Task: inverse folding
DNA sequence: TGTTTATTGTCATCCAGGCGACAAACATGC
DNA sequence: GCATGTTTGTCGCCTGGATGACAATAAACA
């Protein structure tokens, strides 16, 4: 069925030419998720457990914000779970199911009617849109403790985005009704939810402004600073110069491209430039920001 | 002070070259709002009244959504005020002040610390960002009944966007504390607020996807359909073919450009094409969509 | 250990759309 | 009615970045 996807070099996830795009619709779904390999996107192969453990990991996740001109990003990735009280966490998680996802499993697709909100237990979920031409635009990543899927719950309608596991990931799944009930019972939590959505609005607005007025280099610089900020908690073990910022997220060039609305090639080239300038460097498969100032002055 | 702004033709609001941009910083503000004329941007020349009347106008404002592929837009412009009960409206408006704005008055600027949320009573408020190079990106317009300014309230930080009156406008201003107290006291309303923020997230995500993957023509088409949908309530009086959709919002080409992240010239040209094709036409200073299908098939 | 698939690096080509520069058409105030 | 400011229409030039094509690694797998 997807036998053509594995062929050919320089396959850009989801950004094929229009002429071949029709193949994607062979499925009965609205739009096929562009899968990276034939066996890549298993359906939600979820193991359902009654959630109880592994909350500890999440709670330790604190975000010391790194100044990138404003505090947008640290807010946008506010750790919902750890901001709740013990009782609230109990209340919420008792009515949740724990889903276990393998890398590239999808949690939901655009067009789905799933009516759950999710909290990442561990791993990382990628939220993205797919344009009619098959181009993928990543809206954001969800890290442990983060709440997502909220936006679509309030419109009775279908999901508008895709959510897939970027790596081995576990998420708590909470049914719409339960979640609403929970918010009703815990006004504090409702306020926090509003706070998270607000941060999301600000973050998206920010991204939008950047996309509309900055060039690729600037957008990359912003993105790196942003990810450095949100991944600063999980410091990279390669204990190098602590002056350096570590972008401790697995990002392929294609991901960056999808994140900033550029082509993969341009990202490769630009990143290379930045490396030659000594602004960033690669430390086993992830980026370290050597001269934050250099990036910041591109803003 | 702004004596140079009025000079020269083809002045693009806020998108001057970098070399002249420094002039904008003569003020002690972070970034000057690019004003359209020297006398344009008076400070909030607000007349404070105890809000009581003119709610009627707003409540009549109903949104029959026009299908543009999804229901995003009608949601995003959900009428917060009219969705509340009589008592809720009372509660909310008694602790509000009514601000009267002349066209181009600004309500707040990026960097401000104003801690209010607002509800449009009548008129229209434009929310936008200004990039370091002075380029303006419009996030959205707020129409009567709509709640805005919420996103920044939850971060203790400064406003990230500019809000100025697009025309003669009146807004209810509610202090942060009062608003939070209100939401606490009215869980229903809190849910509605969440719904609005959700819709905003969806709308921004949509715009982002479009900006990243569509060309200017498509983006314009989308925009027109969107505005036709949200302005369908206030039908244009020029009672022409009721088959036509009326974009009953005052939009200059520059506004459209700022809305979709394009240059004014390109917007002019593209719009002209669309007119030649018979897809849209001008009816005294605003756009009518003659062939909605034509626009929709550009998506 | 060899084979297959994913990811990165490079290059030549091409074009959508940004930008400056005017002119004409409107608006608005005096 | 004149003058000044604003918005729209048009052109030509020029570049950032998309696209396609491939080579070179690196990782996954069998």
Result:
């Amino acid at each position: 069925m997807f036998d053509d996807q594995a062929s050919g070099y320089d396959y850009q996830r989801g950004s094929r030419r229009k002429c071949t795009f029709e193949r994607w619709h062979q499925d009965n779904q609205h739009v096929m998720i562009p899968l990276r390999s034939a066996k890549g996107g298993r359906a939600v192969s979820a193991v359902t457990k009654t959630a109880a453990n592994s909350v500890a990991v999440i709670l330790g996740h604190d975000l010391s914000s790194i100044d990138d001109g404003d505090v947008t990003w640290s807010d946008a990735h506010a750790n919902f779970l750890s901001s709740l009280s013990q009782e609230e966490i109990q209340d919420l998680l008792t009515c949740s199911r724990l889903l276990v996802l393998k890398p590239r499993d999808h949690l939901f697709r655009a067009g789905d009617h799933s009516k759950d909100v999710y909290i990442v237990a561990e791993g990382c979920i990628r939220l993205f849109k797919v344009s009619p031409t098959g181009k993928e635009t990543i809206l954001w990543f969800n890290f442990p403790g983060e709440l997502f899927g909220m936006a679509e719950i309030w419109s009775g309608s279908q999901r508008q985005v895709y959510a897939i596991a970027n790596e081995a990931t576990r998420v708590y799944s909470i049914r719409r009704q339960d979640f609403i009930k929970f918010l009703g019972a815990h006004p504090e939590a409702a306020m926090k939810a509003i706070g998270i959505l607000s941060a999301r609005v600000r973050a998206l607005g920010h991204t939008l402004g950047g996309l509309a007025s900055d060039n690729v280099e600037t957008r990359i610089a912003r993105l790196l600073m942003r990810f450095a900020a949100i991944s600063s908690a999980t410091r990279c073990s390669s204990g190098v110069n602590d002056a350096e910022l570590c972008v401790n997220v697995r990002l392929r060039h294609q991901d960056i491209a999808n994140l900033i609305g550029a082509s993969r090639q341009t990202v490769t080239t630009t990143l290379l430039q930045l490396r030659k300038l000594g602004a960033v460097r690669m430390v086993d498969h992830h980026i370290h920001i050597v001269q934050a100032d250099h990036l910041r002055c591109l803003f």
